[in-house]
Design brief:
single chain, alpha/beta
Length: about 350
């Protein structure tokens, strides 16, 4: 019932907000998202995601001309990012009140102790046994913190941002959002603290429940309490309706991808409807970024720990009810009663028989 109440709260918040962005009194409107291609290498099918490094290619911004260049930069002295920002400004200026463009910087957290543990034990053993534990004799991976390597990854991205701000005049995020899981809270802080940011757009992220990782029976996906987050990051904002304790995680069960995409869309609808800023940072996870890309109509593009993928988004307020997708119950995950050998390539597991919760979005 608490899970149902969580979704009902988000649904109740989203509907009137969508009407605001639509500038329409109709309650039967929805936001349709699409990725605008031709601007970033990551959205192009010719780019190999497995070898691509955003730090080698100016965040992935394609070196090209824009229709707005002749009037904005007749002497060709502006950077690619300055010309892109002008292009975005003009698109928003002339798009009409039912369409808006945003650039989302989707950042994955730096390596967490759960990532290191999976690498050590091997994926089969991790998935069926070790991921269900809070940790081992050496480390804790429940609501995993970032490892020293993860800290270094985030600091490297911080240095890259500093270089891009100075040399390329990249537009910095005007709004910041983060998953409530510890590895993202820390990564966001390490990534953006100390940068030369505009005074009117400081780094003060909003913690959003539905930008969390795909919810599984793995303890690394069980978030800490609201009080813990407030104490650890007192400058962070926590969205209204955020429960004190995790109402969504359940041992031995996982939300199906369809449910994850539904709550991802709810979170995006809230951002697009209530936040008028153009440049938005979201610090999240590999699975949740994959869900964001699906909802935004972007091609599949796996993001490594600590990496960022910019997504240029067109959002249109469309009259009529949104397409409906049936909510699914949580799926049982396959677990082992004893630990497989470290590095095992297979495992023998069984499924839980307890009654699962209904999906995160119902």
């Amino acid at each position: 019932m608490l899970l149902l109440a969580t979704f009902v709260l988000y649904a109740a918040l989203a509907s009137p907000l969508i009407d605001v962005v639509n500038a329409s009194p109709s309650p039967t409107s929805h936001i349709k998202y699409s990725t605008v291609t031709g601007y970033f290498l990551q959205s192009e099918t010719s780019t190999n995601a497995s070898t691509f490094s955003f730090t080698d290619y100016n965040f992935g911004l394609i070196n090209r001309t824009y229709t707005t260049d002749p009037t904005y930069d007749p002497n060709g002295i502006k950077t690619q990012w300055q010309r892109f920002a002008n292009q975005v400004f003009m698109l928003n200026k002339h798009s009409g009140h039912r369409v808006q463009y945003k650039l989302l910087f989707l950042g994955r957290h730096g390596e967490g102790y759960h990532n290191a543990a999976e690498s050590y034990y091997g994926t089969p053993a991790w998935n069926c046994y070790y991921s269900l534990l809070d940790g081992n004799d050496t480390v804790t991976w429940a609501d995993a913190q970032v490892t020293p390597k993860g800290i270094a990854q985030a600091l490297a991205v911080n240095a890259f941002w500093a270089s891009e701000i100075k040399n390329q005049k990249v537009p910095t995020p005007q709004s910041y959002y983060t998953s409530p899981l510890s590895r993202c809270l820390a990564t966001a802080n390490l990534t953006f603290t100390g940068l030369q940011l505009p005074r009117r757009h400081p780094f003060v992220p909003t913690v959003k429940e539905f930008f969390r990782e795909g919810i599984s029976g793995h303890t690394c996906d069980r978030r800490g309490s609201k009080s813990y987050i407030q104490d650890a990051y007192p400058k962070y904002r926590i969205e209204p309706g955020f429960a004190e304790d995790d109402q969504l995680w359940q041992a031995y069960y996982a939300e199906p991808p369809v449910d994850q995409d539904i709550r991802t869309k709810l979170a995006l609808d809230d951002v697009f409807a209530s936040d008028s800023e153009t440049y938005v940072s979201i610090t999240s996870h590999s699975g949740e970024i994959a869900s964001l890309l699906r909802v935004l109509g972007h091609r599949v593009f796996r993001v490594s720990t600590g990496a960022i993928i910019p997504v240029f988004v067109r959002a249109e307020a469309v009259k009529g009810p949104a397409p409906t997708t049936a909510i699914q119950p949580y799926d049982a995950i396959c677990t082992c009663t004893s630990p497989p050998a470290v590095g095992a390539t297979t495992s023998v597991c069984s499924y839980a028989t307890a009654v699962p919760k209904t999906g995160t979005a119902a």
